[in-house]
Amino acid sequence: MFYADNLFSCALTEQIARNIFEAVSGNIVMVFVDRFGSYWPSDSEKFHSLNMSKPELDSICARIDDGDGPLTVSMNGFTVFADQLITEKTMYGYVIAAITDEVEDVEDKSSLLHTILAFANVIAGLVEKNNAMYELQLKHQHLICKVPVTN
User: Fold this and answer.
1) SS3 call for 26
2) pLDDT tens track for 43-99
3) Is 0.70 surpassed by the pTM of this model?
């Protein structure tokens, strides 16, 4: 397992977070936490309404590392689901999805948020594969340019 902790993987991590956030709307707040504890919310205003502190985020991530993931907690009027953001090759960090408790059907809420977490991992895998293909394309072009032309 590769851990996202170099410059290239940090850029890839940011690209994954951006793609995930573009897919989220409505009453859902997404938070991406990287392996170093830095975090990015999909909507700063909605995230602020969660009243989630940095120690609470760290605690959620630690519980997932301890094997409690996917994790479901109730916090400040929100139901929060969290899990690792991981592909076949790389552990990027954690993804947290929160929905207001105003949505009454707990089963629907749970199903929706678990689906979102699954999609987050799918998006991460697709972005990772896309970047790997682009890197191979660049290497291939570089090799073609180095081949001397003979007459």
Assistant:
1) coil
2) 888 888 888 888 998 999 999 999 887 888 888 888 888 988 887 777 888 888 888
3) no
31, 32, 22, 29: which is closest to 46 by C-alpha? 29
Per the structure, the complete domain to which residue 41 belongs is given by 2-146
CATH of the domain at 75: 3.30.450
Burial-class residue 139 by CB neighbours within 10 Å (0-12, 13-18, 19+): exposed
Any domain includes 97: yes
Helix (H, G, I), strand (E, B) or coil at 130: helix
Question: Which runs of consecutive H residues, i.e. helices, occur in 5-105?
Answer: 7-22, 44-50, 54-63
| Number of structural domains found in the chain | 1
Task: Convert 47-85 to b/e letters by CB count within 10 Å (16 or more is b).
Answer: beebebeeeebeebbeebeeeebebbbeeeebbbbbbbb
